[in-house]
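During the no-cost extension, the postdoctoral fellow (Dr. R.K.) reprocessed legacy sequence entries with the updated structure-token encoder. One reprocessed record is reproduced below for audit purposes.
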Amino acid sequence: MKLQKAERHQVKLRIGLSGASGFGKTHSALLLAYGITKDWSKIAVVDTENNSASLYAHLGDYNVLNLNEPYTPERYIEAIKTCENANMEVVIVDSITHEWTGKGGCLQIHEKLGGRFQDWAKITPRHQAFIDAILHSKAHIITTVRRKVEFDLDRNSNGKLQVQKLGTKEITREGFEYELTVNFELLNDNHLVKASKDRTGLFMNKPEFVINAATGKRLMEWCNQGISIDTVLKEIESTTTIEGLRHLYSKYDFMQKEIHDVIIARKSEIENANNQVIPNHTIIKSHNTSQNGTINSNGTTSST
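Re-encoded structure tokens follow.
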């Protein structure tokens, strides 16, 4: 356990887009993705919306993975991993709503188990594994989710019951938006959005706007203001001691997964270089005994 100076390193974006059907979630996600990567061929859409992603094929040559029912957490995870293995830089999961309320999704699994409160003990770890696949992905992830209008019955000043609109709610497990870098809520069919959650500070409490590729570019510029992986790799390459490598591995603990293999390779290079500097075992005649002394690689001597 130790304290260290806070630094914002280069991160992978986790962006949410939520809105009612027809408000432009898929189209906005594709424009965001292109602004992030500037390469349509590095974008993949995990499409659960009846091939709706292909409707925008005129935008560019992006990739589509059609995901049909059952919408289990494991099938979503497999789809995300497939995109990662294909070296996609941005993965759009359109939408995550089916993982929660679709056929084979968490709510249906809960119902089949009996619908009891204790049955969530079996479902929650599966849902969390899906969330972790999003949060720990090596690609930038954009998720879309449907919203529904919430109503309530209340009595007015005359004592009559009246319906009150409370607002809209995302159709997924509560709390998902708190895991995101930015969460955009589409407000109408004119594609206007506002940020309901924003760790970047770029969009929160700002006027409503329409998402385009420039929005993705702004997010990527924010993302790149921290310590880049390239900078860390250069530090590793310039390190000439094992102790220095240990220091870097500890210093950049938030990147350990990315730099582990590079650290190991550099360690081998340093060890090989050190072995070449020390000459072959030299036999030294002891003045006091008839035994020979041999210089070891660590500088000590041993008798032969």
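The CA atoms of residues 221 and 281 lie 55 Å apart. The radius of gyration is 28 Å. The remaining legacy entries will be reprocessed before the final report is submitted.
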